[in-house]
Amino acid sequence: GVTAINSIPVAEPRLASGRGGLTGRVIFPEMLRVVSELRQEAGQQLVINAVGGIATGEDAWRALEAGADTVQLFTAMVYQGPWVARSIALDLAKRMRANPAASISTPPLQS
What we know:
Blueprint: E1 2-5, E2 8-11, E3 19-22, H1 28-42, E4 48-51, H2 57-66, E5 70-72, H3 75-80, H4 83-98
Parallel strand pairs: 1-4, 4-5
Antiparallel strand pairs: 2-3
């Protein structure tokens, strides 16, 4: 499996090395694009973990719709606290109840 995308390399003269990784909400659109492209290229043979700007249930839902198998949080936990994970899980459950035909599970990988 892969984790997509976590951060985007950027030049930043204020950093000792002059480069760093941009993370958080600003990379969310790019994460969705990369996840979608990975899913299109790899099919269901690759497990994709989406990370980059996920802070709400809507964000997690969009990442799963783009093709992610799992989602990962960090920046949201820093700014909103650890309970954000519960909030996201509850929102995803609500979305699933509202749309019983939807599925956030993927078929098992073939060996």
